[in-house]
């Protein structure tokens, strides 16, 4: 995806990172996936080829029950319901909300990428820049010296959580050695092509059911390549507090995810998942973008004297976005 698409989905999968379909009955029977609930406050930082850093506004992710709720700086919320396999975006100040199913979102993202003239592999996420389709099994993880990594890497002072005594440092590489992007080895280890570096805090862990549900979300809705899924399994669900990923195939640009707060909650605030009374349902923002781009494509075809025979995609606002 290009910069025109919402970055919230990339931010959702960084901090955490039921085979097959997750069901509401499964989540209910287990008391929800996230028990106890916890909160992660973080922000993305882009590092360009000159080393200049550009920080995005903070996002607060709350994990509880079968939900992940991301609260943005502009007051909007994105609710990922892992049991129902759907995503609801709430704009209370506009009085609107949208709901879309995992598969429908994947279809829309793919179509937007096509209309924008890009390939899915060219997005900023590392699992999209490293070549062919991958899964969690395609990644190799090595644990490095945590203290050495903080001395040799610019991340040393970016998060107060990195100095925790139990923090662990991971390097993630493609098993076949074909990855072209590299973020280097922060602890001075042997040279290699590193897709991501991750520092994790084991003081909070997500259980196996929650990890499987998140992986289902990542694969089905986001089309990820299993990089963070592999990391979560390696550390038995410990929470990443800092992640460095390549943002270009050459590795000269990077994206960091910096966690500034990680703590358990006494209870999950269910008002976070509630749609304000009187809110109007609208198409998901990406569905709106897709419809606009399709109209533009058709307009260009007409102006050039070539009219498309292919039917345009429809904007689905049915239950779950997958009807």
Write the layout of secondary structure elements.
Blueprint: H1 8-13, H2 24-29, E1 34-47, E2 53-55, E3 59-65, E4 67-71, E5 77-81, E6 86-91, E7 96-101, H3 102-115, H4 126-129, E8 139-144, H5 146-152, E9 168-174, E10 194-205, H6 208-222, H7 227-234, E11 238-246, E12 254-264, E13 280-281, H8 285-303
Parallel strand pairs: 7-13
Antiparallel strand pairs: 1-2, 1-3, 1-12, 3-4, 4-5, 5-6, 6-7, 8-9, 9-10, 10-11, 11-12
Bin the strand percentage.
25-35%
Number of strand segments: 13
Task: Give the overall average pLDDT.
Answer: 77
Indicate the low-confidence ranges by residue numbers: 1-30, 119-132, 314-323
Whole-Å distance between the termini? Answer: 24 Å
Question: What's the shape?
Answer: globular
The topology string of helices and strands comes to HHEEEEEEEHHEHEEHHEEEH
The domain tally reads 1
Class of secondary structure makeup: alpha+beta
Largest sheet: 13 strands, mixed
Helical fraction: 10-25%
Number of helices: 8
Rg computed from alpha carbons, rounded to a whole number of angstroms:
20 Å
Describe the model.
The protein has one domain (8-273). With 323 residues, it is α+β, with helices and mostly antiparallel strands. Strand 3 and strand 4 form a beta hairpin. It has helices at 8-13, 24-29, 102-115, 126-129, 146-152, 208-222, 227-234, 285-303, and strands at 34-47, 53-55, 59-65, 67-71, 77-81, 86-91, 96-101, 139-144, 168-174, 194-205, 238-246, 254-264, 280-281. Strands 1, 2, 3, 4, 5, 6, 7, 8, 9, 10, 11, 12 and 13 form a 13-stranded mixed beta sheet that branches. It is built from 8 helices and 13 strands. The radius of gyration is 20 Å and the shape is globular. Helices cover 24% and strands 29% of the residues.
């Amino acid at each position: 995806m290009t910069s025109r698409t919402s970055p919230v989905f990339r931010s959702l999968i960084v901090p955490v990172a039921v085979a097959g379909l997750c069901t509401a009955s499964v989540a209910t029977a287990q008391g929800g996936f996230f028990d106890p609930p916890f909160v992660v406050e973080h922000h993305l930082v882009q590092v360009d080829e000159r080393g200049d850093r550009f920080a995005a506004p903070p996002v607060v992710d709350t994990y509880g029950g079968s939900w992940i709720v991301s609260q943005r700086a502009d007051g909007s919320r994105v609710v990922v319901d892992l049991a129902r396999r759907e995503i609801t975006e709430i704009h209370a100040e506009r009085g609107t909300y949208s709901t879309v199913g995992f598969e429908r979102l994947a279809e829309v993202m793919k179509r937007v990428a096509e209309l924008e003239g890009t390939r899915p592999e060219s997005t900023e996420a590392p699992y999209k820049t490293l070549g062919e389709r991958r899964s969690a099994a395609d990644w190799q993880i090595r644990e490095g010296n945590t203290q050495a990594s903080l001395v040799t890497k610019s991340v040393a002072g970016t998060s107060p959580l990195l100095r925790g005594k139990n923090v662990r440092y991971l390097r993630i590489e493609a098993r076949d050695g074909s990855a072209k992007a590299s973020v280097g080895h922060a602890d001075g280890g042997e040279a290699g092509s590193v897709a991501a570096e991750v520092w994790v805090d084991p003081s909070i862990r997500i259980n196996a059911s929650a990890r499987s549900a998140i992986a289902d979300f990542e694969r089905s809705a986001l089309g990820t390549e299993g990089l963070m899924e592999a990391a979560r399994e390696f550390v038995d669900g410990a929470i990443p507090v800092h992640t460095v990923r390549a943002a270009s195939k050459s590795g000269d640009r990077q994206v960091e995810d910096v966690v500034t707060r990680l703590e358990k909650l006494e209870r999950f605030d269910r008002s976070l998942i509630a749609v304000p009374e009187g809110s109007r349902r609208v198409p998901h923002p990406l569905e709106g973008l897709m419809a606009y781009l399709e109209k533009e494509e058709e307009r260009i075809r007409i102006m050039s004297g070539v009219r498309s025979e292919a039917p345009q995609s429809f904007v689905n606002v049915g239950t779950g976005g997958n009807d």
